[in-house]
Amino acid sequence: MTKIATFNVNGVNGRLPVLLRWLAEARPDVVCLQELKAPDEKFPVKALEAAGYGAIWHGQKSWNGVAILAHGAEPVETRRGLPGDPDDTHSRYIEAAVNGVLIGGLYLPNGNPWPGKKFEYKLRWFERLKAHAAELLTTGAPVVLAGDYNVMPTDIDVYAPDRWQDDALFRIEVREAYAALMAQGWTDALRELHPGEQIFTFWDYLRARWPRNAGLRIDHLLLSPSMAPRLRQAEVDRHVRGWEKASDHAPVWIVLDD
Q: Active site located where (predicted)?
């Protein structure tokens, strides 16, 4: 069995105790991290090595940043940044081979406010992701695309859908882009094993949204066709959101047959 997780840590150094506590508790084999909010030289590689994890990372000062961790192994980097825009300086995509599986770790742009340049950038980034995802499928390799997609795919993925219609995480253009990505042949692991169930992965710090369970499902693990039959579990460690100094996201993980 292989356990693969995604976790938007919302600052890898400020929340390092939370991350290390969760790694020791959950013992995932592979983890995709988002929102490192740290330049490359500030990534806590020594602390993660001491916890048993090899790592690759693509950092950025103050915001963005992605990483892939592997327990007892060194991820073999295959890509850093999405193709299609050489002028894009955001650290939002990293890819590695880990134990025979290709892992793409991503942090899709938020896109707010709508309308505006940030929303347009989000849609352009989504198009680049779709193009690269299609290329990955042509290889026939086992692939997992994991991360913070900043998309609630359907009404059940948001606590009050009527209030979110003009938000960049729920605009129809964004949901259609996600649906088009899925139509390539990917499987949304959490939804596959929990059809019709309202599950959240993010709760804003504002307006008591965590105590009220007013959440969003925006963190997803997508499986290529050869990986989907291996899916055995898919869950959210929602209790982690209740820890002291927690991220506003909870870790999401899957278990695959080897």
A: 107, 148, 249
